[in-house]
Design goal:
Length: 187
């Protein structure tokens, strides 16, 4: 996961935003344009979406590593496990009743915390993403029946805002560099 260490934050943050946007467009296309009725095409587009999300996870790992290496690694593990469960589900190999949201909820919570404490992204993005993560966890509870639409829309919009911010604005490079240098000095 450390292969992108030498890349400065500006291309990395924009690349993360673009890959995240590609993930959104692919996942939305699977639902809106392909549909589950065309099973093989639907699975193929969803496999591409999961592949893009894995790349986003690795990019986020490298972007947030200076904030907190352990929490960033834990967040990446949650996301990768969620992707694995989702992929196994498409292949009908996932354990019964195990939702990828069980992993994506904590992933968004951790990522929200990392954004909030990072100082190189607006804190409101961290708050929104953490709330989205909490929403994904609630989505798995009995409260889901009452809050389903709200939770889906809120989670989608929170992640989309982060994606668009990274694509359009990126991170505060000076703050990211400062944090990365201070992290290297402590290791």
């Amino acid at each position: 996961m450390d292969g992108m260490k030498a890349m400065p934050p500006r291309p990395r943050d924009r690349m993360t935003g673009v890959v995240y946007l590609l993930y959104f467009l692919t996942a939305i296309s699977a639902e809106l344009f392909v549909g589950s009725g065309r099973h093989d095409a639907y699975q193929a587009v969803n496999l591409i979406a999961y592949g893009l999300y894995i790349v986003v996870t690795l990019l986020f790992y490298n972007l947030f590593k200076p904030v907190n290496r352990i929490l960033t690694f834990l967040a990446a593990l949650f996301s990768l496990f969620g992707c694995a469960i989702g992929l196994l589900g498409f292949l009908a190999l996932a354990p019964h009743q195990l939702s990828p949201l069980l992993f994506f909820g904590p992933y968004c919570l951790l990522l929200g915390y990392l954004i909030f404490t990072s100082t190189f992204l607006p804190r409101i993005l961290g708050v929104l993403l953490a709330l989205a993560g909490l929403g994904w966890v609630v989505f798995l509870s009995p409260l889901e029946t009452h809050l389903s639409t709200f939770l889906k829309v809120f989670g989608f919009l929170s992640e989309l805002l982060l994606c668009l911010w990274l694509t359009a604005k990126g991170v505060n490079v000076q703050r990211w560099n400062h944090l990365a240098r201070s992290t290297e000095q402590h290791h």
